[in-house]
Write a structure and sequence with these properties.
The complex is a heterodimer of chains A (504) and B (247).
Chain A lengths: L1 H23 L3 H11 L20 E7 L3 H12 L8 E7 L6 H11 L4 E5 L7 H13 L6 E4 L5 E2 L3 H6 L7 E10 L6 H24 L10 E4 H6 L11 H11 L3 E12 L5 H21 L16 H11 L1 H18 L1 H29 L1 H12 L4 H11 L1 H14 L6 H29 L7 H9 L1 H18 L18
Parallel strand pairs in A: 1-2, 1-4, 2-3, 6-8
Antiparallel strand pairs in A: 4-7, 5-8, 6-7
Helix pairs in contact in A: 1-12, 1-13, 2-7, 2-11, 2-13, 3-4, 7-13, 7-14, 10-19, 12-13, 12-17, 13-14, 13-15, 15-16, 17-18, 17-19
Chain B lengths: L4 H11 L12 H16 L4 H15 L3 H7 L6 H8 L7 H11 L13 E4 L4 E4 L2 E4 L5 H16 L11 H11 L3 H12 L12 H41 L1
Antiparallel strand pairs in B: 1-2, 2-3
Helix pairs in contact in B: 2-6, 7-9
The chains are: A alpha/beta (504), B mainly alpha (247).
Chain lengths: 504, 247
């Protein structure tokens, strides 16, 4: 009998501590991100600048375009102004069966710049960017002129020195592809674009530098990927059309072929990003579904070190899956906290405080560092940086940092507005805080829903600031799991461009 | 070929007496023919623009004007002729290159040194001279040539982008192995080695811009390290403050 009791006690203890471990999974994404940020400093000594030399290969610029009449003319003009030998630059616009004036604009530019601007037209369009790129790629590879290929988007603006800052890395014969720092460049930038601008400092300027240090790159930016001809030929001379993440597949294939992929954070490219939740949702859902596809396609690669590349390294796998599985971690942490709330409240409270103090430390480090990495963008987006996790999560972070003052302030406010500060009410507040990690994703999803209602549209940005931009991205990732599990159709929704982007 | 003006005057004197015996036992005629042959081997590989750039480099290093060089040649070259040579507008034969190299004190030593044969292994994607090897990305001609140029700079200990005169024998090897005709090969190599002299929009050469930009970019990266330390210090300071006053 006593043995049974002991077994029950043991099982109970194991169960409780298992829940604590699951709560601590909620720390993983931010802790891993902090690790990535921590190694950025090593980029000062572990970068590729020691191997660069001036290189001016003949570059074919491949611009996929579908109904880009509003922006394609100025894009071509800007490309012609790149600080790069004109005789080594050709622009190939692949018109994906546009129904607007795109062909006329491109043909006119071709006549103005004979031999430098080439119009290629697909008769059947709408199959996605990869198909469009392949159409151009096939023709470009058919002759020997091209030595390097730059894949970009029609609306993207390259700073004059950015292309040659990218080509200089080809002095190292091991480099197969180079990508640049893409910045959100819409003027004026609304709240959503500011969130994206801040996000891009973290996801590109910061994380890609850390990936340079690790020697494994997750993704070449779709609007700025420069390949050597040899690399393109090595990976089959085609872009993957079977997924929604053609850029990531190209990046992985390049590295699996034994070539390096380098990020140059000092080569800057400006792009226009979505202005509302709907646009962001479509874009990110495509990316997230692509990441699910990549995760499964390369299932034998993860956490298996290989002398030929670094994609199988533990650190790269960790950073990949912490991002990929973030919604699951958040749901598990919330569910475990809630379970502990009813089973063992003191333990749940201790786990909650530990979870949030770690997250608060990581948040502070990442946010302050990110704002310093790109101070110009940081000045424009500091509010979005602070509000990235959402105001409610931010309140928990503040509590984690300053428990005493926060408690006084909160209780004082509750008394002021006549909310009882008795045990049951406080326990309800605490339960809400436990559920919030997962609940914030629901809130972000609600923001998407309100945006599509004409009368409630005003509410959607407020909901994003309250629930957080990060949870919004998590909600997209979670939706991608469902879409992939259901085998939903892969549609390529083009991000709407207005031509607002400009260099400061 | 790396002699100064006085040395070249000496050579002129020697050629006037073909049968004089030299210290190494060769006759002056034999020595002269070997020198000319060597110069011609080099000449066939010297792109006029490249040689012109080398002339400008040497003259500038001496702080001389073209008129000074014309005067120094004792009437052998006019100022106009030297200007054209420096601009790479003249097709120069071996003898002229030798004379100009002597006049300008172009040091050919590091440009065309004696060394082992070039070995090109396409299967292993490797170029080798003696114990020095250089791998290349693919067997595509551009990649092989890029690897070759890098190898030559490495062997000669020259700054990438500095004047480079290539060896006939190397070109024979490359041409035969890659099944590529020699003039085309030379054109490609010339284009590769001349990337450094390309003028950018602001008038700087690619080399000048490159050096400045790499230094600036490297400063940015060091700056990020400093900023990281600052961010880290902020976190630590706040943690200490939290433990002391806010818990």
């Amino acid at each position: 009998m006593s043995m049974l009791r002991e077994a029950v006690v043991l099982a109970d203890m194991v169960g409780r501590w298992t829940l604590v471990v699951l709560v601590m999974l909620g720390v993983f994404p931010l802790a891993t991100a902090s690790y990535q940020f921590a190694i950025i400093g090593l980029h000062a000594v572990r970068n590729h600048y020691g191997k660069v030399e001036p290189r001016f290969p003949r570059v074919a610029i491949l611009v996929p375009a579908w109904n880009e009449a509003a922006v394609i003319g100025s894009s071509i003009d800007r490309l012609l102004l790149l600080d790069y030998p004109a005789d080594r630059l050709r622009i190939y616009v692949v018109d994906d069966a546009s129904t607007d004036q795109t062909p006329d604009v491109v043909i006119a530019k071709g006549q103005e710049n004979p031999g430098q601007v080439v119009h290629l037209r697909r008769k059947k369009g709408g199959e996605g960017k990869a198909h469009t790129l392949n159409h151009g790629l096939k023709q470009i590879l058919a002759n020997d002129w091209m030595q390097a290929l730059l894949i970009m988007d029609a609306d993207v603006i390259y700073e004059p020195d950015s292309l040659r800052k990218m080509t200089r890395h080809f002095a190292d014969p091991e480099v197969g592809a180079v990508t640049a720092y893409i910045k959100e460049g819409s003027r004026p930038a609304n709240w959503m674009k500011r969130f994206i601008a801040y996000e891009y400092i973290t996801a590109q300027a910061a994380v890609r530098r850390s990936q340079n240090v690790l020697g494994a790159m997750a993704c070449l930016a779709g609007g700025a990927q420069l390949h050597t001809r040899a690399n393109l030929e090595k990976i089959g001379g085609q872009i993957d059309t079977s997924s929604l993440a053609e850029d990531t597949f190209t990046t992985f294939k390049t590295q699996l072929a034994g070539n390096k992929v380098v990020f140059d954070g000092n080569a800057t490219v400006w792009a226009e990003e979505p202005a509302d939740i709907d646009g962001l949702w479509k874009q990110r859902l495509r990316w997230a579904r692509g990441n699910v596809q990549v995760s499964f396609r390369y299932k034998k690669l993860w956490f298996r070190p290989n002398p030929g590349h670094r994609l199988g390294s533990f650190s790269f796998g960790l950073s990949w899956f912490c991002l990929f599985l973030m919604p699951i971690f958040m749901i598990l942490a919330s569910a475990s906290l809630t379970a502990l709330f009813f089973i063992d409240f003191p333990l749940s409270w201790a786990a909650f405080k530990l979870l949030w103090i770690v997250n608060a430390i990581c948040y502070l480090f990442i946010t302050t560092y990110t704002l310093m990495i790109d101070p110009d963008t940081g000045r424009r987006t500091w509010r979005e940086a602070v509000g990235f996790p959402g105001l409610i999560s931010l309140a928990m972070i503040v509590y984690a940092w300053f428990p005493k003052p926060f408690s006084w302030a909160m209780l004082g406010t509750m008394e002021l507005i006549h909310i009882p500060t008795t045990g049951p009410v406080l326990r309800l507040v605490i339960l809400f805080a436990y559920v919030w990690l997962a609940g914030s994703m629901l809130g972000a999803w609600a923001a998407k829903l309100t945006e599509s209602r004409r009368r409630l549209k005003w509410l959607s940005p407020i909901l994003v600031y309250i629930c957080g931009y990060g949870p919004l991205l998590c909600a997209v990732t979670f939706t991608s799991y469902i879409k992939e599990a259901r085998g939903a159709e892969m549609s390529w929704d083009k991000t709407e461009k207005t031509g607002q982007v400009s260099m400061p | 070929m790396g002699q100064n003006r006085e040395d070249w005057s000496g050579l002129d004197a020697m050629t006037s007496d073909f049968d004089s015996s030299l210290a190494d036992g060769r006759t002056a005629r034999e020595a002269h023919e070997e020198e000319v042959a060597a110069v011609q081997r080099v000449e066939s590989l010297v792109p006029p623009a490249r040689f012109g750039a080398l002339m400008v480099e040497c003259r500038s290093a001496q702080g001389q004007e073209i008129a000074d060089m014309a005067a120094r040649s004792n009437g052998l070259f006019t100022q106009n002729y030297l200007e054209k040579a420096e601009r790479g507008e003249l097709t120069l034969d071996g003898g002229l290159i030798g004379q100009l190299a002597g006049l300008y004190e172009v040091d050919a030593g590091p440009v065309v040194p004696l060394r082992s044969e070039l070995i090109l292994d396409l299967d292993r994607q490797e170029l080798k001279v003696g114990d020095t090897a250089m791998s290349f990305n693919s067997i595509h001609v551009e990649d092989v040539l890029q690897g070759y140029v890098s190898l030559v700079y490495k062997l000669r200990g020259q700054q990438p982008g500095s004047g480079l005169v290539l060896r006939d024998r190397d070109l024979d090897v490359l041409s035969a192995s890659l099944s590529y005709n020699e003039p085309e090969l030379r054109r490609k190599l010339d284009a590769m080695t001349s990337d450094f002299d390309i003028r950018l929009a602001d008038g700087r050469t690619a080399r000048e811009a490159h050096e400045e930009e790499v230094a600036a970019d490297q400063r940015v990266e060091w700056g990020l390290l400093v900023k990281e330390v600052i961010a880290f210090c902020i976190v630590i300071a706040l943690l200490v403050a939290r433990q002391m006053w806010f818990v």
